[in-house]
Specification:
By secondary structure, the protein is α+β, with helices and mostly antiparallel strands. Helices cover 30% and strands 23% of the residues. It is built from five helices and nine strands.
C-alpha cells in the first residue's frame, strides 16, 4: 500500500479494535519523535523474548548504570515496536518507568518487515498481536524509521528510579530529524 493509504488502515484498525475512547487522548504532537519516560503498565508487547538475551541485557544495563538505546513505541496504542528485550530487562531489574521514543505508527516513515521467512508481518497484525495474548515469536518483526535518527540516550538508571515523581508520561527531550 501507498504510505497514506497504509496509515489510514492503521488508524481504521485502531478505531475498530480499541474504539475512539481507548486510543490515548494525548495530542500526538506532544509525544511523536520525543524521548519520554512512561510507566511500564501503559506499554503493550507484540513479541515474545528470549530469556537468555533478556538476562544478558539486564546484566549489561545494570553494570553500565545507564540505558543507551531507547524503546521504540507507537504513540497511539503504546505498542512496543522495537526493544522488547530491553523492556523485559528493565522490568527484571525492577524498573517501572521506561524510557521510550514515540513514533506515529500510521506514518509512512515507520516501516515493518520480518526477520523470519515463515511470517508475513503488517502494521495491523503487530497491533492486533499487542492487543491479544497471541504474540509473535522473538525477533519476528523488523521496524525501521525512514529519515528519522534516534540518538543514544545514555539515561542514568537513577533517573528511571525517580520515575515515581513523574506523571504517567513525562517527555523531556525533542529529537532532531
Amino acid at each position: 500500500m501507498v504510505g497514506g493509504q497504509h496509515g489510514m488502515s492503521v488508524l481504521k484498525f485502531l478505531l475498530e479494535h480499541l474504539g475512539r475512547l481507548k486510543i490515548h487522548s494525548i495530542d500526538l504532537k506532544y509525544l511523536v519523535l520525543k524521548n519520554c519516560i512512561v510507566h511500564c503498565k501503559l506499554l503493550k508487547e507484540h513479541e515474545e523474548t528470549f530469556k537468555e538475551k533478556t538476562e544478558f541485557l539486564a546484566r549489561i544495563i545494570e553494570n553500565d548504570g545507564f540505558l543507551k538505546d531507547l524503546i521504540l513505541v507507537d504513540a497511539r496504542a503504546f505498542t512496543i515496536l522495537d526493544g522488547h528485550h530491553r523492556f523485559k530487562a528493565l522490568r527484571k531489574l525492577g524498573y517501572e518507568y521506561i524510557l521510550v521514543f514515540f513514533v506515529d505508527y500510521a506514518s509512512p516513515y515507520v516501516t515493518v518487515s520480518t526477520w523470519r521467512k515463515d511470517y508475513h508481518v503488517t502494521k495491523e497484525e503487530v497491533l492486533k498481536r499487542a492487543l491479544t495474548s497471541k504474540k509473535y515469536p522473538p525477533r519476528t518483526s523488523k521496524h525501521r524509521l525512514v529519515g528519522v535518527t534516534i540518538y543514544p540516550s545514555f539515561i542514568s538508571l537513577r533517573e528511571l528510579e525517580k520515575g515515581s515523581r513523574y506523571s504517567t508520561i513525562e517527555c523531556y527531550d525533542e529529537i532532531l530529524l
